[in-house]
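Sorry, any thoughts here?
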Amino acid sequence: MIKTDQHNYRKHSDKNKRIINKSLKKLGAGRSILIDSEDEIIAGNGVFEQAGKLGIPVKVIETDGKELIAVKRTDLKTGDKQRKELALIDNHASDTSEFDMEAIEENFTAEDLQDWGFEIEKEKDPPEQTDELRGFSRSHILISYHPDHHEEVVNIIESLSLIDGIEIETGSNG
């Protein structure tokens, strides 16, 4: 019997769970989960949980890690809308979960993580309230948008950066 990982490094928000559930319901399973020799999940806890809620059975394929297992969806062709949607939503679902940094820091040193290019972002201390900064506020804004609107969003951000006194730091997770 497959068991979820009680020390999962991912946190699955309600939004993330809804996306996974809807994807499984509408598009079917698109990728595998990974379990260890004791049937505990290594990767795919969120997908396993939602598949269970939908009654989707699990087929176990055994390997020693020396071969890559490919999941072949025989019902999808390259040009199919459903295939394109599955590719998009599979990646989007990953973007809507977060790492459980406490769990990661319990098991790994900063050096371990650096070896894999995994950076732990610490909250920056707020800037010291100098006369120059007094009266100003600092806000952090997360912008989520459809890829079709990327150019518009970039233009808006560039426009804001032209305003004297506005400092913008950007990053991307996709």
